[in-house]
Amino acid sequence: MIFTTRDAANNTNYHRELAINAKNLCRNFGSLAALSELDLTVEKQTIYGFLGPNGSGKTTAIRLLTGLLKPTSGQVNVLGCHLPKEANKLRLEIGYMTQKFSLYDDLTVKENLQFVSKIYGLTANEQKSRLSELLSTHQLTQQSQQLAGSMSGGQKQRLALAAALIHKPKLLFLDEPTSAVDPQNRREFWEQLFDLCDQGTTILVSTHYMDEAERCHKLAILENGIKRADGSPQALMNNMAAQVVEIAATDLRYIKDKLTTLPQIISAAQLGTHLRVLVSKVEANPVALLQRQFCIKPTDKLAIVRPSLEDVFVSCTGQGVAR
Amino acid sequence: MKTSLLRIQAIVTKELLQLRRDRMTFAMVIMIPLVQLLLFAFAINTNVRNIPVGVVDHSQTSLSRVLQQTVSATGIITFTHNYHSTKAAQKAIDSNEVRAVLIIPKDVSQRLVRHPSVGFGLPPSSKQETSRPIAQWLVDGSDTVIASSIKSLRNMPLVELLDKPANRNTPTFEVTLLYNPEQRSVVNIVPGLVAVILTMTMIMFTSAAIVREHERGNMEMLITTPLAPIELMIGKIFPYIFIGAIQVAIILGLGYWLFNVPFNGGLSQLAIATLLFICASLVLGLVISTVTKNQLQSMQMTIFILLPSILLSGFMFPYEGMPLPAQYIAEALPATHFIRLIRGVVLRDVDVIEMNFDMIWLIAFTCLGLLIAAMRFKKTLD
Q1: Based on the domain organization, do B214 and B342 belong to the same domain?
Q2: Which residues of B touch A70 (CB under 8 A)?
């Protein structure tokens, strides 16, 4: 059965197949609801992001979508497989890079890749060509005889990605793949993800980095197991329920303390010499509202600026609100 | 089927590589059988010799001294102390200075000549006189092995004391000791040690096998692959079959060269029996591994199995001497069946087919255990 975006949202004009379609997906651990009523549609050949703080349900959602966890309720269809019933069938089609490095520290890079390739049933010839291809793509040729445990965070991440890709999966799950990686490696990593996506792979990635989330074609913002918003980063920023005012002043900590007591203020956070204030969209003129406050001097500069994804995240989740 | 074999081979190769790099574990594979064999084969001896004992000699005659020498000549005891009174002797037993004391009465000569085993019959003795023993042993009876060794001296022949021929009494039964005529404990212990050491190492290796993957975080990766539980289980036990075979070779080889343990059965017979037991032990370890949550718990469970395998399997004490409930427990342990098989093969040259009950039991245990382990192993994180 092929799901399309038309099934998911009838008002769309284009017709693209869905890699993931989940409805009312719930997962409880005892009395704790780790994930509540998640509706999710991920189009094929796109990069979809889960953005959320620790404990927001990102890993639980990925585990449900890979068949590692059984949902308490709801329906999941991944690449045409109904989960959890067809989890075994799905395993040949997906690649999964776990949050924690899950290959063997006491095996070399090559041994780890050979192990995974045999598990996926690659023949000796396929194995040889695929391994040399992956080692060179992920810049691991020089480290091929090195023990995985002795490698840097970036090298381990590249190895884990290579292992997840060994059987050329159609759908790739990446759970916080760049949490132990420096900015340069992160940049290169994302370039590789776009290469993969271009070659036809669908990618679902979880992160708590705003800049990473902004690179995704589409993303869902999760908090306490609930999806607060989803869409493309641009759409999310355009449709944000707040306006952003930047204040340039001298006594920013004092101003912040005073402003956050106002009900219209969603959040206020200092960024160097500026204070970034999120004002509820119900307020027609946010600059005038702020200028009326006694803590703002007439000489202070106020301006409405373009929202960032962090502003969207804060307005959706209330995270980082310095109230 | 082909990909299934490939996956099993992947697990086997991985396990061997990991084992090769874990030098401590690899060293233990060799050292455990080597050291334990030397230690136990020399130390464990059910024929107690040279028990330190004291003597209270009230008689102080040449006869009493000859009596002491005759008793000493049995080799069971060694006189290490002399005490002047029974009270002092008892105190010495209390303080563990000696394990027993021989009290020789003043009238030992009269008692001896009237003793029925000497059988002089002259001068005519009253019934009371003939029933009197010639001396008395005070024994620390808390250790039953020592107590029974000294009790065995109760009816020792005294004819040597009086220069009488030793074969004067014809025994009621003739006893022919087969397989171990010299009654050396080591002959019985070495094959038993194979069972104990294999129980320990084989269960220990695999009891940690699955939990280790969980603890190190590898399991989340493994269960997202197409690897089937039964493939993982077979792949996990396979390398250790060879490890077990190396250990058996060390124990039986050293037993043969160092302790002259006879090796009567054929190699193929031994290989069949050992292979069955190794598989049963490895599978038992796997079942433990699917039940426990961390390596410490696995270790505790291994010891929980190991102790009855040593004490109830017939390795230390004869199976037949145990009460019925203990025999039932022993029957459930693979070690009990293997000890029967290996003693049969190594010492008595029995064909394993003749001991088919033990063989079938080990095969059934392995199959059932493998099934339980594979069923208990879930390919989800629920």
Answers
A1: yes
A2: 380, 382
Does some domain include residue B170? no
**What is chain A's length?**
323
Instruction: Assess whether B8 and B132 both reside in one domain.
Output: no
Burial tier of B23 (Cβ tally within 10 Å: 0-12, 13-18, 19+): exposed
Closest B-chain CA to A104: B218
Q: Is B200 helix (H, G, I), strand (E, B) or coil?
A: helix
Domain match, B210 and B357 both: yes
Domain boundary among B110, B143, B161: B161
Mark whether B28 and B106 lie in a shared domain.
Answer: no
Question: Rounded distance, CA B222 to CA A253, Å?
Answer: 51
Is there a domain that residue B181 lies in? no
User: Can you give the pLDDT at residue B379?
Assistant: 73
Which CATH number characterizes residue B70's domain?
A: 3.40.190
Q: Which residues of B touch A116 (CB under 8 A)?
A: 225
Going along chain A from its start, the domains and CATH numbers come out as 18-232 (3.40.50.300), 241-306 (3.30.70)
d(CA A152, CA A124): 29
B264 and B154 share one domain: no
Chain B partners of A102 at a C-beta cutoff of 8 Å?
A: 217-221
Among B161, B178, B198, the domain-final residue is B161
Same domain flag for B141 and B32 = no
Within 8 A by CB and 6+ apart from B338, the residues are B194, B195, B198, B273, B274, B276, B277, B280, B358, B362
DSSP letters for B47-81: S---EEEEEEESS-SHHHHHHHHHHHHTSSEEEEE
Best mutation target among B7, B224, B231 (most A Cβ atoms within 10 Å) is B224
- Identity of the amino acid at A118: K
**Residue B94 within any structural domain of the chain:** yes
Partners of A120 on chain B (C-beta within 8 Å) are 225-226
Mark whether B154 and B236 lie in a shared domain.
no
Q: CB–CB of B380 and A107 under 8 A? A: no
Kindly tell me if the per-residue pLDDT of A9 is higher than 80: no
- Establish how many alpha carbons lie within 13 A of residue A308's alpha carbon, considering only the half-sphere containing its beta carbon: 13
Please, are residues A84 and B380 in contact by the beta-carbon 8 Å criterion? Answer: yes
Residues B253 and B322 in one domain: yes
What's the structural domain count of chain B?
A: 2
Indicate if the pLDDT at residue B19 is higher than 60: yes
All residues of chain B having their beta carbon less than 8 Å from the beta carbon of residue A107 are: 14, 17-18
Does any domain span residue B91?
yes
Q: Averaged over B197-208, what is the pLDDT? A: 89
State pTM to two decimals. 0.80
Tokens matching residue B347:
């010492």
- Tell me which residue range forms the domain holding B81: 51-161
- A121 to chain B: which residues are within 8 Å by CB? 3, 6-7, 226
Interchain proximity B226–A120, CB inside 8 Å: yes
ipTM of the complex: 0.82
B215: closest chain A residue by CA: A102
Average model confidence (pLDDT) across chain B: 85
Q: Between the CA atoms of B100, B101, B102 and B104, what dihedral angle is there, to the nearest 10 degrees?
A: -160
**Chain A interface, Cβ < 8 Å to B:** 63, 66-70, 84, 87-88, 91-92, 94, 96, 98, 100-107, 111, 114-116, 118-121, 163
A121: nearest CA in chain B? B3
